[in-house]
Amino acid sequence: MRLRGVGRRYGLGGPWVLRGIDLELAPGSLVRVEGTNGSGKSTLLRLLAGIDAPSAGRITGRPRTAYVPERFPAELPLSARGYLVHLGRIHGLGRTAAERGAGEWLERFGAAGHADTALTELSKGSSQKVAVAQALLGAPGLLVLDEAWTGLDRAARAELDAAVAERVAAGGTVVFVDHDPRRLSGAADTVLRVADARLTPVAAHRPDASGPRPKGPEDDAGPWVAVVTEGPPGTGLPPDLPGAPRHEPLAPGRVGPGPVRLTVGAAHSDALLRALLTAHPPWHIRSVTELPVTAATPPEGP
With a threshold of 0.85, does the pTM exceed it? Predict the structure, then answer.
């Protein structure tokens, strides 16, 4: 996907919110967009998602795209399940696949109990889970997230982190804005800053590309993240996993690798997920759970 000389302003005489944007988004990349409030971050994301059209320049090569806006329009006369099935059909899924996918994503985000609740009756947090689920339902080639983590509980935020890593590992492109500077810290391939209507690249560091970062005092205080993962038959855990996670087999008598629980400091969890999902062959992520434990050692497993 390419942007060439892209600009956006509202009204013929209005000031340029963005101007002269040249950008190429490669498949399988994770892109973070930074900037102050009102700098034009959301405008850039709407242009990428195709919600807004540029006032100048061209955007080409946009893949099938899904978008999570900063505010979810929850006034629609549908249940959570009905809305997701409807969006799944729009994404090109058959009814059976759309219903199955709706149930799976609601389950993953801890909202299965609200499947038949009207959107208008959902809490802010539950509405946001539905908003995120609709974007992931069709496995988009481009996923655009505008403050998508806002309003989610801790478990759902960790699940969205894992879903982002899965999309990137599958060859999708993910572009996101989040107010928390620690969100997916170190995992982004590209960091872009919007300021004065321009887009400037910022150096991004990939800790998983150079091995785990040295353990620091923040890792000894928690919180910890437990990742349950399973590799293809005949494979072992990838070497030099970020954060040097503690690993415990969950089916010791099983033939083959079986599921493994990896416990790692939260500071390393994003890089660990990326390393597992981009391994050759990739490992399947069963669950991601944040464990708010304060201790000198990782929490013990059962």
Answer: no
